[in-house]
Amino acid sequence: MNQTRVTEFILLAFGNLHSFNIVLFILFLIIFLFTVIGNLVLIVLFSVNTKLQSPMYYLLCHLSFSDLVISSNIVPNMLDAILFGGKKMSFIACITQLYFFSGSTFTECFLLSVMSYDRYLAICNPLRYSSIMDFKLQICLSLWPWLVGLTVNLSGVLPILNFFFCYDNIIDHFFCDISPVLKLSCSDTSLVELEVFLFSMPLFILPCGFIIVTYVYIFLTILKIPSTTGKQKTFSTCSSHLIVVVTFYGTLIAKYMIPSVGHSSLINKIVSLLHTLFTPLLNPIIYSLRNQDIKVALKKMVGQ
Known about the structure:
Blueprint: E1 8-11, H1 21-48, H2 55-84, E2 87-90, H3 91-124, H4 129-132, H5 135-152, H6 154-157, E3 170-171, H7 178-184, H8 190-223, H9 228-257, H10 265-290, H11 292-303
Parallel strand pairs: 1-3
Antiparallel strand pairs: 1-2
């Protein structure tokens, strides 16, 4: 009780790589700019091009927005920390960053599962696809991931507001992730850690399991198609989504589900970079390179 309560944190980012600060800053800035531009271009394309106003592209628009939230919430502060050798963040700013990061991550888990359901209907039940996936269902399927992600996330973030941080205020990371923040607290964090585990595992595992089940049915349906050309054309409609799912869940599993004992802080930062910086960049690249409709719409917009 006699100790001073910490009111701000210091993010070290990549403090052990001082000699590469300028190179890292330029590299990450370029990636961030391409991420923002790429996702914004997709959102604009889906909004103004009538040929891209289908359920799949509508859901992809929400995925692009989620990527923008994750990237813009993390990267500017990281760039500041890299350029100046550290970044001061107030306690409230740090908790806010943690809230939007974890909330957007949960939201993206459910968005990817909703998109797999859309592909399941389009491939396994094409005759009823338009009647089932009407505008009302599209709104519901796009809004409930945000609602669940941003509300369930409160159970792990709100208790931290009452914690005391009275020892060290230095976070050896480039953003306020849940684990390094809890390690600095001198309060009893066991209950919050249990809550985070109990809520996070279902929010990661259930959407992932749903995606696996839907793709089993999708693959079984594709195998029944007699022609090789038909199989390839049908599979191409969901291949981009499958690549995004593997990339997204691969980084999450490497970061949160594989034991980090023995891992250096640099390795943990690299894995976090894959999730917060590179995955949001890959999504628009994968969809724009593998989707003919998006290529045509993009060429038309650039020509205009």
